[in-house]
Design a protein that fits this description.
- The protein is α/β, with parallel strands linked by helices and 1924 residues long.
- The chain is 40% helix and 16% strand.
- The protein contains 72 helices and 67 strands.
- It has a 49-stranded mixed β-sheet. Strands 2-1-7-3-6-5-4 form a seven-stranded mixed β-sheet. The protein has a three-stranded antiparallel β-sheet with strand order 10-12-11.
- Helix 1 packs across helix 6, helix 43 packs parallel to helix 45 and helix 45 packs parallel to helix 46.
- The radius of gyration is 55 Å and the shape is extended.
- The two termini are 102 Å apart.
- The N terminus is likely disordered.
Length: 1924
């Protein structure tokens, strides 16, 4: 600050003279009122000589000059008064100038009284008068301002002096600890674009206040790559908000302190006259109570000695002159509260009112408090978003580069007086990526040096190492540490370094440094053991472990512990060192973790134990800082030397302590992103915790963690540590598998995986994402190092790296060479230019696996291409190259193209958007002509350029490549010359497939030039010229190519937008033969009838055009006539498309005539009366005209009666077979009547299609009368708004088929319908379903039924019938002698069928389902049936009948000698109800021949005068105790021959029941008592009982538990048996052996079943012997028995079974040897009827032999071969053998491996099986089963077809739909789990309507949506889409 000037006369006038120039500019900027007020101070003769009425600028300027000149020469008193008034009235006077003027002017009253008067008397009197007036009145405002402002300035200047002293003292303390001086001109900053949310007025002071400072630099603030010095960056910051960004430890706080020091010396960008306020957010964050500006300045910044009035004067001056202050707010990242955004509407700010600290800071930044002041804020990069909208300038501190780091390392060790150690340390540091990355941050660089010093000293010979005696390092500073050149070595807040002073800082630094030098001298010159790179920590976590050990190793009190470390090496010494401080580190880690949880970095002294505090200060782990509490007390606080060290110790706590739960770890474990967003959670820390946790999970850290965990976790520390390590690795594993991570998070994941050193995790990272995409982030070599760790884990599989807009230095490319298995590299950014490409070219050879390289969206020119292109040849596996979006131009393209021939594996090159010309494209064509494997050359508007090659240069293989050779030159401006140049370029090329020249319109001359040069082009397929033509004239030029150029085979032209033109060629350009077709497509060309003449003329004599498309033109009927007239000249024509040409019905009639007159015209397809679709189809065969089928199709048209008459009148002349299609048209009743009139005349008509054309029931009935009009009608199918057809025979039809469904018949139409049916021909079937007949209509129909001539059936389903209608239908069994059966269901399916027979006296059947019958209904049915003696079968199913009703029905039924079969199924027929019902029926009727219940269905047969012979209760939940009521009844029937009580829970009571009735049944020969019991006593009781029943010959005791006692009894029974079933029995080995031995004595045994028996070796031998002894066996079932030798012995024993008829050997797994044995036996079994060999390991070859052997079994009926390995060979043998086995009824070959050829062979075999009833081909291995489905048409008895699980498509379903009506007995089709879509299902539905006997089609698990399935199922419930 300038010194004060004494207020004497000479000085005051001289000062005014010196400052006149600046005062002139200040006065010039003031208002005219101020200037006039100052002018009035001049005497009258001077002041009033001025023209006050002239306010112009020139006049004001003259006034100012006159005024200054006057007072420069005036006396001192006047001059002082003038200067005082000017300071009070004028605004924006710079502070330094105002201070000087006020100092020289002094106080007004003092100056006036003390200065002698030199004025004239008059003037003196005037002044005296004014003075007296002033004394009489209060002081004027001017004098009051003078009295106030002068003291304010004095206090202000004194406060500034105090601040200078404060900042200088602070800097001096910090400077003494620095290794290097701070120079702002050597600190580098990267300016960034500031985002101002609103425009604020420029409050920057005038240039006069800036003095001679340098103006702002002209730099690109939007570029992160630009850099300026900090000194330059801060220029122009006065009056603005400037934000300085930097990492933790980058030295922001030290720089702000340096800035304050420069200000104190009058240097730097901040004016020395301004107040410099340096506030730290760390201190501010402790203030929670509201503060005023007064409190902030005097209680928490500087504590002056002035009283409160003086302090208030300072504040008042600050508020009056805010621009004279600079506020430096350091460390916003440590402030826990987000600042408020400025509000649009807000009350005026009250600076005296206490506010929260955050509000005060927000007021400063938002210009609400102290507007115009200078604000400098420091923070980290991620916090800059909080300052969006308030910052004027933003800059980011740049880290140190390698040279700066190296220099700093040498300086560090120079201070230690050991430069030799420094060189070694620098080499080691620069060779380790983790250390060099850390060292870019000054504070961390210092830590690295301490770490290296520790490692290097430990490498010395034990005993020689001497550590310094000081407690801490002299390099640690208040903000961090040393400075390098101008860059700071200090850290940031908290862990950035210390803000306060440690105990060591208060010592004599010189003396301390001297002791260090002495200590260093002691070791200089000594031989050192070199520390190798392998001994340097390999991960960041290991580095910090070593750092921690290094700092602890500085403890001077460790001498007693040092001996333990003498024989350890660096890594081992870490664990040893840590183990010596277990308790201390436990507390430190607890403190660090507590701070992490609470977001705190400051710790009070009372929070730390004394011993730990002293250790941390001695070793330098802690730094000290004095903070002022809100009560004003100064206290000591401590913090870790860097944030990362606190995070590392927190991670140690996480990994070693039980008090950190897994949940807390998972919550803290998240990946950091480098993208800054507003939603980021604010934190003071660096988010490195997860990295350290991952690093501590590596095995290398386990030992150290276990040592620390012994204190934190106690016993079991090792297990706890390993458990926590596993948890971390699992968390990492989950992240590895997450495929939604962004690029920055993927990179962070790579760092975590690298820290863990887990190769498996690294492999999982790239396993989830084969290409690692990194976008818009800055990359460092350490990032590439992390990527390399991950990439190298995949091995030869390879991985891709995609760098998009990432900032990276060239050193990153050197680091990239460590990635060994890269197959894809992508660089995409304008930052990558020629230098980057040159560097890339030097490393490409290091990537031998590289297959794809992209260098696009960059700044590559021909200069870079000249270097890059040769380097590409070092990549032998390169297949894809992308250099698009650069600036290569033609020169660069040529350089790249030169290397194509040297890259044989190249497949794709992208060169678009490179500013190339058409000449460049031609050059590219010429260069690639030598490449034999060229596939595509594509250029779109000279922007998109792509070249593609086939994978091999072999021409033969490339010929078969799917990608054919093409050249596409799109959107080029063609001219005659350019076409000729292109032709020259193409002449060098081999033959290519497609040439695409689309994009622009051509003139006629250019088009003609192309047609002239076209024969020279080597095009094999087509030339595309889209958008080239615009007129018919152009079209005619191109049309001539069909005749002028023989190679042209197709011409396609479309002139409407989008214009499409193409010329097609014959393949190979050979001379085409006559068999090749030519196509002409001229659609959408606006052709008129007259244009056709020009087109025909262009044809010349050519008549070999086969296809002509003239659609969407303007030809109308006249053009159509010209076209038809030209038809004779088109001798090869096959199709003409004339759709959308405005053809009217007159043209349609014309076409009908043409169909009759032109023999080669076979189809005329018309829609919408000719206005839309119109297609003519021809055939070349002109012979046998009458045998041709001609089609006239007129669809989607509104047809008038006259139209029908005219069209059909013309078609009467057609002599060929004709199909007439009027579907989807509108046919009125009158039109149908006209159609009926002409139908008899159309002798050649074969089919009439009127689908979806009949809308009225009356019209349908009218059309149905064709049955009486024409005798050729063989079927009529009329369905309302559905498919409807009339089929005709060539001659008179013997019988017809009628289907009339879906209509609503009124009385008149119904009578007409019945009349037609009565007078019509004999009907094979009549379908009247779905016509809403109801009971009354049905009754009327049934009255006419005897008069109708019906052969097969009548279907009256879905006619809303009730029980009355049911009774009427049942009556037909008696009323109509030819009715053979009635089937009625009143349930959801509403099924009602009446079956007919042509044989008199045949049997009749009745089936009633879901009839909801009442007792009177059942009685009426009984009455009807009692009069029907031919009734043979009666079936009731789910009709809600009660037992008494059933008993009554049985009484009413009459039985005949032939017998009547009755079955009743009800859900309630179970358990005790079964016994009751059975007893009631036996009591009610004496003619019961057999009776039984199976599950819930009762079966009985009635036969006149017959005795009861059979009783059965099978699987009906009957228990033994419930049989008691049957005892007396059964005993009354001694004639009973068969009883079956299988699959019930009989228990011992059932056995006792049997024992009670058997003595009274002397004729009982068959007993079945299969069990569900597990008690052996049941079998014992049965066996005892059976000993007395000597008449029993057939015995079934399957599934019993047979004890040895029971086995002994049964063995005595067996010799007299003819049939024995012991399947699934459980017995001991002895009991089983006893039973098997007894079989040998069964001489008369004919049936033996031993399924699922467990045979021991001995029992197997006995069974074989028994089979040899018993030759009478006819049925042998040995399924699923366990044999030791595959059954070979048993098979050999069957040689004597010559009477065998049925054999079951399922599950034998006999394989080839067993099959060979079996095939030798088959010729001996001539009576064999059934054989089952499922799951027998039969191969395809063995199956072939088996089938060949089966041809001897001529009586074979069933063949079961499922679940084997049969294939096409066996199927082919079936085609040869099965035709000879004419009795086959069942064929099951499911679950085999038959392919398409085998299915064809099977179809041939099936065609010959006329008796086949069941065929199962489930899961046979092929979906191609159309031939099999088709063959079923030759199987008239087929009932069950299984084709499930074959992936069959709609083709199979449609083929089945075709044959279904031909298979009249077909009842079940299984198509589940196939690929049938709704199309196939609809085809099956259609066919179902003609198949009333078909009961079920399974369609579960097909390609049918639930909604489609539901819709189809509602239409016909026989379509089943469920799994049941």
């Amino acid at each position: 600050m300038d010194e004060e000037v004494d207020p004497d006369e000479d000085n005051v006038n001289s000062v005014l003279a010196q400052e006149s120039s600046e005062l002139f500019h200040i006065l010039k900027s003031q208002s005219p009122e101020v200037i006039m007020q100052l002018c009035q101070m001049m005497p009258n003769e001077a002041g009033w000589s001025i023209n006050h009425a002239d306010p112009s600028a020139s006049a004001l300027t003259q006034h100012i000059k006159s005024m200054l000149e006057h007072f420069r020469l005036a006396n001192a008193a006047e001059c002082r008064n003038f200067l005082q008034s000017m300071c009070l009235l004028c605004e924006n006077i710079p502070m330094h100038l105002e201070s000087r003027l006020m100092s020289v002017a002094g106080y007004a009253n003092t100056d006036v009284t003390q200065c002698p008067s030199t004025e004239p008397a008059s003037q003196s009197n005037t002044v005296a008068q004014e003075s007296s007036e002033k004394n009489e009145k209060p002081s004027s405002p001017s004098s009051l301002q003078q009295l106030i402002k002068r003291p304010r300035i004095d206090h202000w200047e004194q406060y500034i002096i105090s601040v200078r002293s404060l900042l200088l003292r602070k800097w001096e303390r910090q400077r003494q600890l620095l290794v290097q001086d701070v120079q702002l001109e050597n600190v580098w900053v990267s300016p960034r674009t500031s985002n101002r949310g609103r425009d604020r007025p420029d409050q920057t002071p005038e240039s006069t206040d800036r003095g001679s400072r340098t103006p702002e630099p002209d730099v690109d603030f939007g570029s992160l790559e630009a850099r300026v010095t900090l000194e330059t960056f801060l220029q122009g910051c006065v009056g603005k908000v400037t934000v300085l960004l930097g990492q933790a430890g980058s030295g922001k706080t030290l720089l702000m302190s340096c800035l304050g020091q420069q200000w104190a010396h009058g240097l730097g960008p901040i004016p020395s006259s301004s107040l410099f306020v340096l506030l730290e957010f760390r201190q501010l964050a402790l203030l929670s109570h509201p503060l005023s500006l007064f409190d902030l300045l005097f209680h928490h910044y500087l504590f002056p000695r002035e009283d409160d009035n003086e302090k208030q004067a300072i504040v008042d001056y600050l508020l009056s002159n805010p621009e004279q202050s600079c506020w430096v707010l350091d460390g916003y990242d440590e402030f826990h509260i987000k600042l408020n955004k400025p509000e649009v509407q807000r009350e005026p700010w009250d600076p005296t009112k206490p506010q929260l600290v955050s509000d005060l800071i927000s007021g400063l930044l938002n210009r609400q408090l102290l507007p115009g002041c200078t604000v400098v804020v420091t923070c980290r990069v991620r916090d800059v978003l909080d300052l969006e909208g308030v910052s004027d300038k933003v800059g980011q501190l740049l880290g140190w580069d390698r040279q700066e780091v190296e220099k700093y390392v040498h300086n560090f060790f120079d201070v230690k007086a050991n430069p030799g150690l420094g060189a070694q340390a620098a080499d080691l540091l620069l060779s380790n990526q983790h250390l060099i990355a850390m060292s870019s941050v000054p504070a961390l660089c210092n830590i690295c040096c301490i770490c290296l010093e520790h490692l290097l000293l430990e490498e010395r010979v034990p005993g020689e190492t001497q550590m310094p005696e000081e407690s801490g390092s002299e390099t640690w500073t208040a903000k961090g540490n040393e400075l390098k050149g101008g860059q700071i070595s200090g850290g940031g807040k908290g862990a950035e370094g210390s803000r306060g002073r440690s105990h060591e800082e208060m010592q004599d630094h010189k003396g301390r440094r001297k002791s260090v030098d002495n200590r260093m001298d002691g070791i200089n010159g000594r031989a050192q053991l070199p520390l190798t790179q392998a001994q340097i920590p390999s991960t960041l976590t290991q580095v910090y472990l070593t750092v921690l050990s290094a700092f602890l190793g500085r403890d001077p009190d460790k001498e007693g512990k040092k001996d333990k470390l003498e024989n350890t090496r660096p890594y081992k010494s870490v664990a040893c060192t840590l183990s010596q401080y277990q308790s201390e580190l436990c507390e430190l880690s607890h403190l660090a973790w507590k701070g992490l949880k609470d977001s705190r970095i400051l710790f009070m002294e009372e929070e730390i134990s004394r011993s730990v505090l002293e250790l941390s200060i001695r070793t330098g782990l802690f730094s000290q800082m004095e903070v002022r509490r809100e009560d004003g007390m100064l206290v000591n606080s401590y913090f870790f030397i860097h944030l990362t060290l606190q995070e590392f110790l927190g991670a140690v706590r996480v990994m070693t302590s039980l008090d950190v739960s897994d949940t807390q770890l998972k919550k803290r474990f998240s990946l950091r992103t480098r993208w800054t967003t507003k939603s980021d959670q604010r934190t003071v820390f660096t988010d490195s915790l997860h990295l350290f946790v991952c690093g501590l999970s590596s095995p290398q850290c386990t030992q150290a963690l276990v040592q620390l965990a012994m204190t934190a976790s106690g016993t079991g520390a090792q297990n706890w540590v390993k458990k926590r390590q596993v948890l971390v690795l699992n968390l990492l594993k989950n992240l590895c598998h997450r495929d939604t991570l962004t690029g920055p998070k993927v990179l962070e994941l790579c760092h975590c995986v690298q820290e863990s050193q887990d190769q498996q995790l690294a492999n999982q990272v790239v396993g989830t994402r084969p290409t690692l995409e990194l976008r818009r982030i800055q990359l460092l070599p350490i990032d590439i190092d992390a990527l390399a760790f991950v990439v190298n884990s995949v091995g030869d599989i390879g991985v891709g790296l995609d760098f998009g807009a990432c900032s990276m230095e060239l050193e990153c490319l050197d680091a990239l060479t460590r990635c060994q298995y890269i197959h894809y590299l992508c660089f995409r950014s304008r930052k990558y230019g020629d230098k980057f490409a040159e560097k890339l070219s030097t490393i490409l050879s290091k990537f031998p696996t590289l297959r794809k390289l992209e260098f696009c969206g960059a700044s590559l020119t021909a200069t870079g291409a000249a270097v890059l292109a040769p380097a590409l040849q070092d990549c032998p596996n390169l297949t894809e190259l992308n250099l698009s979006d650069n600036n290569l131009k033609d020169e660069g393209i040529e350089l790249i193209a030169d290397v194509f021939a040297n890259l044989p594996g190249l497949v794709s090159i992208m060169l678009g958007r490179n500013n190339i010309s058409l000449e460049g494209v031609n050059c590219l064509i010429r260069k690639t002509s030598s490449c034999l494997n060229i596939q595509h050359i594509h250029a779109d508007g000279l922007k998109d350029v792509t070249v593609t090659f086939s994978p091999t240069s072999d021409l033969q293989s490339s010929h078969h490549n799917n990608s054919e050779p093409t050249i596409s030159l799109l959107n080029q401006k063609w001219s005659k010359r350019k076409i000729q140049e292109l032709a020259k370029s193409l002449a060098c090329c081999p033959a290519y497939c497609i040439l695409d020249l689309s994009g622009v319109q051509w003139d006629v001359q250019t088009l003609k030039t192309l047609t002239q040069l076209l024969p020279k082009f080597k095009v094999t397929k087509k030339i595309i010229l889209n958008e080239s033509c615009s007129s018919v004239k152009d079209l005619v030029i191109l049309t001539a190519l069909l005749s002028d150029c023989p190679a042209v085979r197709e011409l396609y032209v479309r002139l409407q937008s989008p214009v499409e033109v193409s010329v097609g060629f014959s393949e190979g350009r050979e001379q085409p033969g006559n068999e090749m077709s030519k196509k002409l497509c001229l659609s959408c060309c606006a052709l008129l009838p007259a244009d056709l003449e020009r087109i025909w003329q262009s044809f010349g004599r050519s008549s070999d055009v086969t296809f002509i498309d003239l659609s969407s033109n303007c030809l109308d009927n006249k053009g159509l006539k010209k076209l038809l007239d030209f038809l004779p000249r088109l001798r090869s024509i096959l199709e003409i498309n004339a759709s959308n040409n405005g053809i009217s019905m007159g043209g349609v009639v014309m076409l009908a005539g043409a169909l009759c007159s032109h023999s080669n015209l076979t189809q005329v397809l018309i829609s919408d009366g000719g206005r839309e679709r119109l297609i003519l189809k021809f055939c070349r065969d002109r012979r046998a005209e009458k045998q041709k089928l001609k089609i006239f199709r007129l669809n989607n048209s509104s047809l008038l009666p006259t139209d029908i008459t005219k069209v059909c009148g013309r078609l009467v002349q057609c002599h060929s077979h004709l199909e007439l299609d009027f579907s989807h048209s509108s046919l009125t009743d009158e039109a149908i009547q006209n159609l009926l009139k002409v139908l008899p005349k159309m002798k050649s008509l074969q089919r009439l299609n009127v689908s979806h054309s009949i809308s009225s029931t009356s019209g349908a009935v009218t059309l149905l009368s064709c049955l009486t009009v024409s005798h050729r009608v063989k079927s009529v199918e009329l369905r309302h708004q559905f498919e409807s057809f009339v089929h005709f025979d060539s001659v008179k039809a013997e019988q017809a088929r009628c289907r009339f469904t879906g209509f609503s018949l009124n009385a008149d139409n119904y009578e007409r319908l019945l009349s037609v049916l009565q007078h019509g021909p004999q009907l094979s079937a009549l379908d009247l379903s779905g016509n809403q007949l109801e009971d009354e209509g049905l009754k009327r129909f049934l009255e006419t039924l005897p008069r109708l001539k019906i052969i097969s059936y009548v279907n009256v389903s879905r006619n809303s019938l009730t029980q009355q209608g049911l009774l009427d239908v049942v009556s037909t069994l008696c009323d109509c002698t030819n009715v053979s059966g009635v089937e009625v269901s009143l349930g959801a399916e509403q099924r009602c069928l009446i079956w007919f027979t042509q044989q008199a006296g045949g049997e009749k059947t009745l089936s009633v389902r879901e009839g909801n019958l009442e007792q009177d209904h059942l009685v009426r049915i009984g009455e009807i049936l009692s009069t029907c003696p031919s009734l043979s079968k009666l079936k009731f199913q789910n009709n809600d009948l009660e037992s008494d009703w059933i008993e009554g029905l049985v009484k009413m039924l009459n039985s005949s000698q032939r017998g009547l079969s009755v079955s009743v199924e009800e859900r309630w027929i179970r358990s005790d109800e079964v016994v009751s019902l059975l007893c009631q029926c036996l009591e009610a009727c004496s003619d019961v021949h057999t009776i039984g219940v199976h599950h819930n269905t009762m079966h009985l047969t009635l036969k006149k005068d017959a005795e009861l012979t059979s009783v059965s209760l099978v699987d009906c939940a009957v228990e033994g105790y419930q049989l008691a009521p049957m005892t007396s009844i059964i005993q009354r029937y001694p004639s009973l021959r068969e009883m079956d009580f299988s699959h019930n829970h009989m228990d011992i009571e059932g056995a006792e029941f049997l024992a009670s009735v058997l003595p009274s049944l002397p004729n009982l020969t068959s007993l079945s008592f299969s069990s569900k019991e597990i008690w052996a006593r049941v079998a014992e009781k049965l066996s005892e009982t059976l000993l007395q029943a000597t008449a029993i010959q057939c015995l079934n005791l399957s599934s019993h538990v047979v004890s040895d006692t029971a086995a002994e009894s049964m063995a005595r029974i067996m010799p007299r048996l003819q049939s024995l079933n012991l399947s699934h029995c459980v017995c001991s080995e002895a009991g089983g052996l006893q039973l098997i031995k007894a079989l040998g004595e069964c001489d008369g045994l004919e049936r033996l079943c031993l399924d699922s028996w467990q045979l021991s070796e001995e029992s197997g031998v006995c069974l074989a012997q028994a089979l040899r002894n018993v030759n009478s066996i006819r049925v042998l079932k040995l399924n699923k028995i366990d044999t030791a030798d595959g059954g070979l012995d048993l098979l050999a024993a069957m040689e004597g079974l010559t009477q065998i008829e049925e054999i079951g050997l399922d599950g034998w797994r006999m394989a080839d040897k067993g099959l060979e044995q079996l095939t030798r036996l088959l010729p001996l079994w001539g009576r064999l009827r059934r054989i089952s060999l499922s799951k027998s390991l039969i191969s395809d070859q063995s199956g072939d032999k088996l089938l060949d052997a089966l041809k001897c079994c001529s009586h074979l009926e069933e063949l079961h071969l499922c679940s084997n390995s049969l294939g096409d060979l066996t199927a082919a043998r079936m085609a040869l053998v099965l035709p000879s086995l004419t009795h086959i009824t069942v064929l099951d070959i499911s679950e085999n491996n038959i392919r398409y050829e085998g299915s064809v062979s099977l179809s041939k075999a099936i065609m010959c099986l006329k008796n086949l009833t069941k065929m199962h081909l489930t899961s046979v291995g092929t979906p191609e089963l159309c031939a099999v489905a088709s063959s079923l048409a030759h199987c008239p008895l087929i009932q069950d077809v299984g084709l499930g699980w074959n992936n069959c498509g709609d083709n199979v379903a449609e083929e089945l739909a075709r044959v279904m009506p031909l298979c009249h007995r077909l009842s079940v089709i299984d198509l589940e789990s196939n690929s049938v879509s709704v199309t196939g299902a609809e085809a099956l539905f259609e066919a179902l309507q003609s198949c009333p006997a078909l009961q079920l089609i399974r369609l579960w698990r097909n390609k049918i949506t639930p909604s489609e399935a539901q819709s189809l199922s509602l239409q016909d419930r026989r379509l089943n889409f469920s799994s049941m």
